Amino acid sequence: MKISKIKSIEVLDSRARPTLCTSVYLDDGSIGQAMVPSGASTGQLEAHELRDKNNQRYGGLGVQDAVKNSEEALKILKDVSSEDQLIIDNKLIELDATENKSKLGANAILSVSLACARAASNSMSISLYAVSYTHLRAHETDS
Q1: Taking Cα atoms as reference points, which of 33, 24, 32, 34 lies closest to residue 4?
Q2: Taking the chain (143 residues) in consecutive chunks of 10 residues, what is each chunk's mean pLDDT?
Protein backbone atom coordinates (compact mmCIF):
# COMPACT_ATOMS: atom_id res chain seq x y z
CA MET A 1 0.00 0.00 0.00
CA LYS A 2 2.52 2.54 -1.15
CA ILE A 3 1.72 6.08 -2.23
CA SER A 4 1.82 6.39 -6.01
CA LYS A 5 0.10 9.72 -6.82
CA ILE A 6 -1.10 12.90 -5.12
CA LYS A 7 -3.61 15.20 -6.83
CA SER A 8 -5.09 18.36 -5.33
CA ILE A 9 -7.65 20.87 -6.51
CA GLU A 10 -8.94 24.18 -5.23
CA VAL A 11 -12.54 23.92 -3.94
CA LEU A 12 -14.85 26.14 -1.93
CA ASP A 13 -15.65 25.30 1.68
CA SER A 14 -18.99 25.78 3.46
CA ARG A 15 -18.27 29.51 3.84
CA ALA A 16 -17.49 29.82 0.11
CA ARG A 17 -13.78 30.32 0.81
CA PRO A 18 -11.18 28.51 -1.27
CA THR A 19 -9.51 25.49 0.26
CA LEU A 20 -7.86 22.28 -0.90
CA CYS A 21 -9.22 18.88 -1.69
CA THR A 22 -6.43 16.31 -1.99
CA SER A 23 -6.60 12.76 -3.30
CA VAL A 24 -3.88 10.24 -2.50
CA TYR A 25 -3.64 7.18 -4.72
CA LEU A 26 -2.03 3.93 -3.58
CA ASP A 27 -0.38 1.26 -5.68
CA ASP A 28 -3.17 -1.20 -4.78
CA GLY A 29 -5.78 1.08 -6.38
CA SER A 30 -7.10 2.56 -3.12
CA ILE A 31 -7.77 6.28 -2.88
CA GLY A 32 -8.08 8.59 0.10
CA GLN A 33 -9.47 12.09 -0.12
CA ALA A 34 -9.46 15.04 2.28
CA MET A 35 -10.82 18.55 2.10
CA VAL A 36 -9.44 20.85 4.76
CA PRO A 37 -11.44 23.78 6.12
CA SER A 38 -10.06 27.24 5.66
CA GLY A 39 -8.86 28.69 8.94
CA ALA A 40 -10.95 31.19 10.83
CA SER A 41 -8.55 31.91 13.69
CA THR A 42 -5.47 34.06 13.15
CA GLY A 43 -3.52 33.85 16.40
CA GLN A 44 0.23 34.33 16.37
CA LEU A 45 0.80 30.65 17.17
CA GLU A 46 -1.44 29.38 14.39
CA ALA A 47 0.07 27.34 11.58
CA HIS A 48 0.27 29.37 8.37
CA GLU A 49 -2.52 28.85 5.88
CA LEU A 50 -0.98 29.51 2.47
CA ARG A 51 -3.00 31.92 0.31
CA ASP A 52 -2.10 33.18 -3.17
CA LYS A 53 -2.68 36.88 -2.41
CA ASN A 54 -3.79 37.41 -6.02
CA ASN A 55 -6.61 39.92 -5.67
CA GLN A 56 -7.95 38.92 -9.10
CA ARG A 57 -9.00 35.55 -7.63
CA TYR A 58 -11.22 35.24 -4.56
CA GLY A 59 -9.96 38.53 -3.14
CA GLY A 60 -6.48 37.08 -2.65
CA LEU A 61 -7.71 33.98 -0.81
CA GLY A 62 -7.00 31.44 -3.57
CA VAL A 63 -4.93 28.37 -2.77
CA GLN A 64 -3.32 27.48 -6.09
CA ASP A 65 0.17 27.68 -4.53
CA ALA A 66 -0.89 25.29 -1.78
CA VAL A 67 -2.33 22.96 -4.45
CA LYS A 68 1.07 22.88 -6.19
CA ASN A 69 2.87 22.34 -2.88
CA SER A 70 0.66 19.42 -1.92
CA GLU A 71 1.35 17.73 -5.25
CA GLU A 72 5.10 18.42 -4.84
CA ALA A 73 4.97 16.32 -1.66
CA LEU A 74 4.89 13.25 -3.93
CA LYS A 75 8.64 13.72 -4.44
CA ILE A 76 9.24 12.71 -0.83
CA LEU A 77 6.24 10.43 -0.31
CA LYS A 78 6.29 8.28 -3.44
CA ASP A 79 6.56 4.63 -2.46
CA VAL A 80 6.15 5.41 1.27
CA SER A 81 3.74 3.03 3.00
CA SER A 82 0.40 4.72 3.57
CA GLU A 83 0.12 2.88 6.89
CA ASP A 84 3.01 4.75 8.45
CA GLN A 85 1.41 8.08 9.31
CA LEU A 86 4.29 9.11 11.57
CA ILE A 87 6.80 8.85 8.71
CA ILE A 88 4.44 10.67 6.33
CA ASP A 89 3.90 13.54 8.76
CA ASN A 90 7.59 13.81 9.66
CA LYS A 91 8.57 13.92 5.97
CA LEU A 92 6.04 16.70 5.34
CA ILE A 93 7.34 18.66 8.33
CA GLU A 94 10.93 18.22 7.14
CA LEU A 95 10.03 19.33 3.62
CA ASP A 96 8.40 22.48 4.98
CA ALA A 97 11.19 23.16 7.49
CA THR A 98 9.52 26.22 9.03
CA GLU A 99 8.13 26.62 12.52
CA ASN A 100 4.68 27.75 11.39
CA LYS A 101 4.37 25.67 8.18
CA SER A 102 4.69 28.79 5.99
CA LYS A 103 6.71 27.21 3.15
CA LEU A 104 4.23 24.53 2.05
CA GLY A 105 1.26 25.88 3.96
CA ALA A 106 -0.50 24.12 6.80
CA ASN A 107 -3.48 23.66 4.51
CA ALA A 108 -1.35 21.69 2.01
CA ILE A 109 0.33 19.62 4.74
CA LEU A 110 -2.94 18.77 6.46
CA SER A 111 -4.75 17.82 3.26
CA VAL A 112 -1.97 15.44 2.21
CA SER A 113 -1.63 13.94 5.68
CA LEU A 114 -5.33 13.26 6.12
CA ALA A 115 -5.75 11.95 2.56
CA CYS A 116 -2.90 9.49 3.22
CA ALA A 117 -4.62 8.25 6.38
CA ARG A 118 -7.91 7.85 4.53
CA ALA A 119 -6.19 5.98 1.69
CA ALA A 120 -4.69 3.56 4.22
CA SER A 121 -8.09 3.14 5.86
CA ASN A 122 -9.74 2.41 2.52
CA SER A 123 -6.98 0.02 1.50
CA MET A 124 -7.34 -1.99 4.71
CA SER A 125 -11.17 -1.75 4.68
CA ILE A 126 -11.22 -0.45 8.24
CA SER A 127 -12.45 2.75 9.88
CA LEU A 128 -10.16 5.75 9.86
CA TYR A 129 -9.77 5.73 13.65
CA ALA A 130 -8.78 2.07 13.53
CA VAL A 131 -5.83 2.85 11.24
CA SER A 132 -4.35 5.12 13.89
CA TYR A 133 -5.10 2.68 16.69
CA THR A 134 -3.65 -0.28 14.77
CA HIS A 135 -0.55 1.72 13.85
CA LEU A 136 0.01 2.93 17.42
CA ARG A 137 -0.43 -0.59 18.83
CA ALA A 138 2.10 -1.96 16.33
CA HIS A 139 4.68 0.60 17.46
CA GLU A 140 4.04 -0.14 21.13
CA THR A 141 4.98 -3.78 20.60
CA ASP A 142 8.16 -2.75 18.70
CA SER A 143 9.50 -0.90 21.76
Answers
A1: 24
A2: 96 92 98 86 77 94 96 94 91 95 94 95 89 58 52
Cα-based torsion angle of the residue sequence 131, 63, 53, 104 in order, rounded to the nearest 10 degrees: 40
The pTM of the full predicted model, rounded to 2 decimals, is: 0.88
DSSP H or E run through 64:
helix 64-72
90-107 burial, b for 16+ CB within 10 Å, e for fewer? Answer: ebbeebbeeeebeebbbb
Of 50, 24, 36, residue with least CA distance to 121: 24
Contact 5, 24 (CB under 8 A): yes
